[in-house]
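Is guanosine-5'-monophosphate placement plausible here? Inputs below.
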Amino acid sequence: MNLHSLSENLYERIKACSGKILITIHQNPDGDAIGSGLGLQHLLMKEGKNVVLISPNSIADYLNWLPGIADVVNYELEPERISEHFANAELLMCLDFNDPKRAGGLENEIRKFKGDIAVIDHHQNPSHFAKYLYSDTSSPATAQLVYRLSQDWRIELNVNVAKCLYTGILTDTGSFKFSSVNKETHLVAAHLVSFGINHDEIHARIYDAFSENRLRLFGLCFYNRLEIIENGRVALMYVTQKDHHEFDIQKGDTEGLVNFNLSITGVEVGVLFIEEEKMIKISFRSKGDIPVNEFAKENFDGGGHINAAGGRSYKPLTSTIEHFKKCIKPFIQQY
Ligand code: 5GP
Ligand code: MN
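Reply from A.M.:
I modeled the complex. C-alpha cells:
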C-alpha cells in the first residue's frame, strides 16, 4: 500500500477512536522521538482525542521546555500505571522506532497489546508488528512524517505543534546539515517557522545548554580519549564509569559527543564507547556511503541509519574496544 492510502486508512482509524490513544517512543528519547510524539499528541488532541504519551524512561533536561512535556508518563517512575494505560487503550502509536526491542521496559506491553498498532518511523528494516506501518526511510526525521500526516489529514497546526516538530527535525538533521535533509525538510521548516516559533531560541535551548561539567567532559575526551586509527579514517573516544561520577554525568550529557570525531579532516567513521553500569553503549557515525548501521548490526547487536547507528557490548570496555578495532579493519577496507 502506498503511503498516501496508508495515511488515509490510519486517519479513518483515528477518527473512529472513542477511547484512549497511546503514543510511545524509543528508550532514551532524543529530540525527534519526543518532538514527533508530542507534536502528534497535540494534533490529535486538537481533534478531540484522549491521547497519552508514554516514554520508556526519563527525558533529558535539554528537552524539558517542550510544550506538553510535563504530562509525559515515564514508565520508569510509574511502571504500575503503565499496564493500566495499555489495557485501556484502543490504539497504540509507536513513533521514531520500528521494533518493540527499542522500547526498553515497554517492549512486553507493546507485544501484548490487544488493540491496533500504528508505527510512524524513518529507520531501516522495520519489524512487522503493526497493522499500520507508516515507514519512510528517506525522511530525515519522524517529525517530518508527522508534519506530512497533519497535511494529509488537514489538521491546522499551531505554535505548540510547530515547536515540537521543528525540534524533531532540527535535532535529527544535525541542524539541517545531514545528507538526509531534502527539499521537503526546508519547506516544512519554513511552514513551521510561519507559526511564530523562534528558531534561534529553540536552537539555543538545545545546543547552548551545557553545564560546566559537560563541557569539561567533552574537553577530557578531545584531549585524552581520542584515538585515530586506520590511516586517519576512523576516530574513537570513550567515557568510563569513573567519568560518570567525576563529572556527575546526567542524561543527555554525552549526546552529540560522537559527532566531533567526524569533524577531523579525513575521518570517515566516528565511534563513542560509553561504559554504563551493565553494558557498553556504542554510537557510530559515518560519512558518505559507509553503512555503520550494517556494521553495528553485524558486530554489536545494534542498527540504525546508514550514517548514524548504535549498538552494545557486554564485555569490559577495553575488550570491547579491542573487538571493535579487529572488526572495523576489514569493514572500512571495503569502502
Ligand atoms: P545514538 O548513537 O544517537 O544513540 O543512535 C544513533 C541512531 O542509531 C539513532 O537513530 C538510533 O535510533 C539508532 N540506534 C541506536 N541504537 C540502536 C539499536 O540498538 N538498534 C537499532 N536498530 N537502532 C539503534
Ligand atoms: Mn528519528
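Short version: Residues 35 and 164 are 4 Å apart (CA to CA).
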